[in-house]
Design brief:
heterodimer, A: 111 residues, mainly beta, Immunoglobulin-like, 6-stranded mixed sheet, 11 strands, 55% strand, B: mainly beta, 7-stranded mixed sheet, 4-stranded antiparallel sheet, 0% helix
């Protein structure tokens, strides 16, 4: 039972354009959502998060949007840079801090 | 060091051997987590410690898996009688606060375990 789903395994975007990564979840008890970025042979690195009481959180080039009624969140990166090329994991949490991850989306930013 | 440190980075073992994986969390971090990441998948939760107390071990796949954090800092994940399906990257993460905190988890680079 995949409670956090990232249906696009990969995405290619031109440098300078917007990257939009999508994530759907099924557990309405999730109260906190996170995005992690992962380079090969490294552990995931925290990128940005959003509480379930908000619908948007922005940090520099990164913005996360949450649509609770649709159980959907998205990560926008603008402008995209080649260094953003990595695997992005959507994650969600309920209660303490047990985090459920999606399967990841590999982003390639083309120079 | 400043980050979460895991050792060894790579471990190859024969089926049936026991292995021990080590995690040094960020100093002062209360919470410690272990995850298992299979190829092409996201990390999956194994177990959670708050200081030395193991508060959740619901993700451990079998009784061959055992984790401890006896002094509330370094943690060891032990797998007994390894099987080929145990082959994965094992990730450790720590966070500053305990239950209910919005502090993000900081991950180590993982131990890649290969069972032959």
């Amino acid at each position: 039972d995949q409670q956090v789903k990232q249906n696009s395994p990969s995405l290619s975007v031109q440098e300078g354009r917007i990257s939009i990564l999508n994530c759907d979840y099924t557990n309405s008890m999730f109260d906190y959502f996170l995005w992690y970025k992962k380079y090969p042979a490294e552990g995931p690195t925290f990128l940005i998060s959003i509480s379930s009481i908000k619908d948007k959180n922005e940090d520099g080039r990164f913005t996360v949007f949450l649509n609770k009624s649709a159980k959907h969140l998205s990560l926008h990166i603008v402008p995209s840079q080649p260094g953003d090329s990595a695997v992005y994991f959507c994650a969600a949490r309920t209660g303490y801090q047990k985090v459920t991850f999606g399967t990841g989306t590999k982003l390639q930013v083309i120079p | 060091g400043a980050g979460v440190s895991q050792s060894p980075r790579y471990k190859v073992a024969k089926r049936g051997q026991d292995v021990a994986l080590r995690c040094d969390p960020i100093s002062g971090h209360v919470s410690l987590f272990w995850y298992q990441q299979a190829l092409g998948q996201g990390p999956e939760f194994l177990t959670y410690f708050q200081n030395e107390a193991q508060l959740d071990k619901s993700g451990l796949p079998s009784d061959r898996f055992f984790a401890e954090r006896p002094e509330g800092s370094v943690s060891t994940l032990k797998i007994q009688r390894t099987q080929q399906e145990d082959s994965a990257v094992y990730l450790c993460a720590s966070s500053l606060d305990g239950e209910g905190s919005n502090q993000p988890q900081h991950f180590g680079d993982g131990t890649r375990l290969s069972i032959l």
